[in-house]
Amino acid sequence: MFKKILIANRGEIACRVIKSARRMGIATVAIYSDADKGALHVAMADEAVHIGPAPASESYIVIDKVMQAVRDTGAEAVHPGYGFLSENPKFAEALEAEGVAFIGPPKGAIEAMGDKITSKKLAQEAGVSTVPGVMGLIEDAEEAVKISREIGYPVMIKASAGGGGKGMRIAWDDDEAREGFQSSKNEAASSFGDDRIFIEKFVTQPRHIEIQVLCDKHGNGVYLHERECSIQRRNQKVIEEAPSPFLDAQTRKAMGEQALALSHAVDYASAGTVEFIVDGDRNFFFLEMNTRLQVEHPVTELITGVDLVEQMIRVAAGEKLPFTQDDIALDGWAIESRLYAEDPYRGFLPSIGRLTRYRPPQETVADTAKVRNDTGVYEGGEISMYYDPMIAKLCTWAPTRAQAIEEMRVALDSFEVEGIGHNLPFLSAVMDHPKFVAGEMTTAFIAEEYPDGFDGVTLPEDALRRIAAAAAAMHRVGEIRRARISGRMDNHERHVGRDWVVSLQGEDFEVTIDADQGGASVRFADGAEMRVTSDWTPGKPLAVLDVDGSPLVLKVGKISGGFRIRTRGADLKCHVRTPRQAELAALMPEKEAADTSKMLLCPMPGLIVKINVAEGEEVQLGQALCTVEAMKMENILRAERKGTVTKINAGPGDSLGVDEVIMEFE
Q1: Nearest 5 degrees, angle CA 22-CA 1-CA 322?
Q2: pLDDT single digits (tens) 558-583
Q3: Which residue numbers are catalytic?
Q4: Which of 33, 284, 353, 426 lies at a CB distance of 3.0 to 4.6 Å from 344, suitable for a disulfide?
Q5: 519 CB contacts (<8 Å, ≥6 apart)?
């Protein structure tokens, strides 16, 4: 077994590899850029080597720099994680030339499967079902339009060397084909150093289901069942689960056997994933093979008990798999939610900055439920504009899918993140969405269910009443504390009342509180009563309460006359007032927001790549105005209405913050 391995990656996956290596008694080496000097993976590793400036193109994906770190530290093997150099055959070749083990598949398998065009041809030869499409490379935008017409819209425009949603666009007409071709080409060049593009038919109403495979160097291989990855946004997976609620045993077996057949066809040896599109009749088509560890591998580990990172290391060291297909159990249900530094209230645009508060839920391992959080950040750390926006992968396991979802709901409510925009509210909303709960989602779920974006959650009446009861009880705790201050004037004792009006989400709840040492009984105007118990005290940002025997977790912030409460995807201003205060508050006018309708504001911190219009030009609804790049993604900003550009305040190369004015209109 290896004595020392280098992790050629950063963030949560580097931390994940370090954990398994440490359990195996293997020393680890981290590499880091200027931006990652204080990163968690650097602190966790036994050694750390600086390899260059912040941009990945000048550090993490420069093979010579990584190889020098390998030489300087004497590492015997390298784990590439995912992204960066994980599917670069030249990197595997460089390691082989140095006599250093690559903790991944053979170079030939990476080359064969890493190129989407070649992989489809090999899949067809191996008897694997494939998606209809044109296999030739596309030279320019006009050829892309011609081929798209021949295939028939809609089409998927893809980077041949792409992955993680980068370099991918769906086109529904000629204009989108031209625009998508250029954007995909640009993203592919900047993310992978390879701008080759191809086009295939986009299958509508599909599910994205993938098979995890694991093979050794002795001809043995197993599939570790499937993962459902249909909840996606911009082709980036957001929520995954294992197994899929859609597959039956027969389809699972057929997909697993085809995945293994493809793996054996290229002499695969390591962990890998074969991705399929599955239609409503459970017909499945090969999409691609990822010759690396997947981001969502934890859900497979939770339902099988197999440590995939450990097995990758053992396979690279020449060991045989310690199990056969019959040994691979399917135990319970696991769900993974990807926590991204993306603001759902701004169209999920990237958010950067410092994590002023970062408190994940406690990780637990029990026979009835498990909570796991794979992360690469810490409180006080910074989310950089240079890398992927993923902060953490929150996973839950339980014996049934319904129980795993409920565990995830509570875990998401308990996850405290402040300082940046993040998608926790959206993840919570999905957990309560009827289609997700029923397991009836497709890859179009987010586009169909949130066509106008995400603007928060409107909670049902029963949830509001529970929150109102909790808020009243918490407010009373605060009132008691305020009534006990020292240094009061004689005859000015403050009495805590029993009657209150709780206002939230546009509704008023009149309540009466009777408290004792064990908690508070909150009675509503209609006579309904709820018992609230908790050890919450004023100032705590997280309140864990019991309301009528059921848990309720609230993120709590102080506002004038009440609380800011966040739970189950809702962000609520909750005011607790005396009846007279509520009567007067109803007469107060609401403050109107400033009018920015005649301005184009930068929706995220980013770099202006291109300005598409000029001052004095008349623009039409939907016309591209400019392109902003952030976190490796190009974002095209479009006109929301017809108008004339009166002033342009920024140009290509300018770095802008959130809400800075790019241009003005009349």
Answers
A1: 90
A2: 999 999 999 999 999 999 999 999 99
A3: 288
A4: 426
A5: 473, 531, 532, 533, 534
